[in-house]
Design a protein that fits this description.
- The chain is mainly α.
- It has one domain.
- It is about 65% helix and about 5% strand.
- It has ten helices and four strands.
- A hairpin with a 6-residue loop joins strand 1 and strand 2.
- Helix 1 packs across helix 4, helix 2 runs parallel beside helix 5 and helix 3 runs antiparallel to helix 7.
Length: about 300
Amino acid sequence: MTTATVTAPRTVRSRNPLWTLTGYEIRRLVRNPLFLVVVGFNAYAIYDTTSRVIFEADELGSIPAWLLGGMGMIIFCWLTQSTWRSAEALDVTPTAMPVRTTALCLTAVVPFGCAVLSLVAILVVRAPQGSWTYGVFDGADRAAVQVSQIVLPALGGPLLGVAIGRWTRQVWVGPAAELLIAGWVLLVEGLAFSYPDSQPVLLMRLFAPFALFTGSGDRGDFVETWRGSPAAFLAWQICLCALAVVAALLYQADPLLRRRLIHALFVLVPLTAGCYALAVTGGLQHAVTVVPGFAPRPS
């Protein structure tokens, strides 16, 4: 008599498709030639600052903001749009559109991490002339300026790129959005130099995902600190990042998820408006000029 032994089937623990797709998207990003060029230029630009004197704290913050944030937005927009032109990003496992969008948003941790390393490098290797190069900022305000100018754009730019790539299929939209944002920031910065105490200019300058809070003279002999609250502006940027994620996830969301995202907007939109209002009304009430060796004075 033969006794048959029945073996219970082994339970195979399947991986969460979100983490599978996130890992796949990260590999796609780090193999992207344009992203590698951007990271290389960012590292070289920060290294180059060790060989020259820095007269203005905001000078270094613009480098990773435009490279990791601005170019990162274009790169993530194109990565998102590439899913429409091929099945490259869909051959891992069939998943719903919001899961694939979430994976792309999580991939933004890569440029965000590069920006954090950039901030650390800037704090270590930069050679300022003195504390006056920060204007009148110190402590928490100085930290808020550095995080808002160096770290947050590298997160918000890619997230905005994902949102744009989800809702548009034209490859020129990402670069056009970057040119529009860059043009706006440069315009209001120029106006801030000419009209530092203007309320309309203040409203325009802080109505952007990136803003400068100081400006220096042509010869680096003074630093002018502009109006606005750096801490509230940092909160405004975080809200903009959250809005970009919600906008991206709304694309082809199922009814339940769409309802939850809309409910989230009812909270995020007033919160964003409140942070913007605090950024405009907080901080200095008039521009202040700092000249080395002299007490700060109104501009």
